[in-house]
Amino acid sequence: MIKFILSSLPVAALAVATLGIASPWTSAPAEAAGSAPTPPAQKWSWQGPFGTFERPALRRGLQVHLEICSACHSLDLVAYRALSEIGLSDDEIKAVASEFVVVDGPDDDGDMFEREALPADHFVAPFENDNAARASNGGALPPDLSLMTKARVHGPDYLYGLLTGYVDPPVGVEVMPGMYYNEYYPGHQIAMAPPIDDDLVEYADGTAATTDQIARDVTTFLAWAAEPELEERKRLGVKVMLVILILTGFLYALKKRIWADQH
Amino acid sequence: MASKFMENSVVKWVEYRLPVFSFVDHSLGSQYPTPKNLNYWWNFGSLAGIILMIMIISGIFLAMNYTPHVDHAFDSVERIMRDVNYGWLIRYIHMNGASMFFIVVYIHMFRGLYFGSYKAPREVLWIIGVFVLLTMMATAFMGYVLPWGQMSFWGATVITNLFSAIPIVGDSIVTLFWGGFSVDNPTLNRFYALHYLLPFVIVGLVFFHIWALHVHGSNNPLGIDRKGPEDSIPFHPYFTVKDLFGLGVFMLFFLAFVFYSPNYLGHPDNYIEANPLVTPPHIVPEWYFLPFYAILRAFTTDFFLYQIISLGGWLMSAKLAGVLAMFASILLLLLLPWLDRSKVRSNRFRPLNVWFFWIFFLDCIWLGYIGGKPAEGSFIWMGQIATTYYFAHILIVIPVISIIERPKPIPESISVAVTASGK
Question: Catalytic: which of B76, B99, B117, B218?
Answer without folding.
Answer: B218
